[in-house]
Amino acid sequence: MSLLNNSSKGTLEQIIDTCIAAISTWMPDYRKGEVKKIWMYDKAEDFVLGLAIGMIYAYFEGAFLTVYHRQIDPQERAEVMTVISLRMPQIREALFRAG
C-alpha cells in the first residue's frame, strides 16, 4: 500500500527528473580542484550523488510541507527514499554521462 498519493508521487518524480537534467551542469564545477579542496572529497561523482539525493529529498519535503502543512512521517519518508532508490540507475547514468 502506498502512503503517498499520486499527486505527491508525481511531484517527487518531477523533482528527480529536474535533478537528473541539472547534473550535467553541476559536474564541471565539482570536478575542479579548488572545489574539491574546499569540500574535501576525492570523487566528484560520489559527492554530487550525495548532493543530488539530499536536494531531491529536501525539495520534496518542502513541497510536501507546503501542500499538507505537516512534516513527512517515517513511513512516508521510507517510501520517498524507495522511489529515489528506484531511480538511482538514472541518476548514476546522468553522473557518468556528464563525465
Descriptive notes:
The chain is an all-alpha fold. The protein has one domain (6-97). 81% of the residues lie in helices and 0% in strands. The protein has five helices and no strands. The longest helix has 25 residues, at 6-30.
Order of helix and strand elements from N to C terminus: HHHHH
- The level of helicity is over 70%
**Main pleated sheet:** none
Q: What is the first-to-last residue Cα distance?
A: 39 Å
Percent in strands: under 5%
Briefly say what this structure is:
Helix content is 81%, strand content 0%. With 99 residues, it is mainly alpha-helical. It starts with 5 loop residues before the first helix and ends with a helix.
Q: Which SSEs are present, and which pair or pack?
A:
Layout: H1 6-30, H2 33-39, H3 44-68, H4 74-86, H5 88-97
Helix pairs in contact: 1-3, 1-5, 3-5
Name the descriptors:
single chain; 99 residues
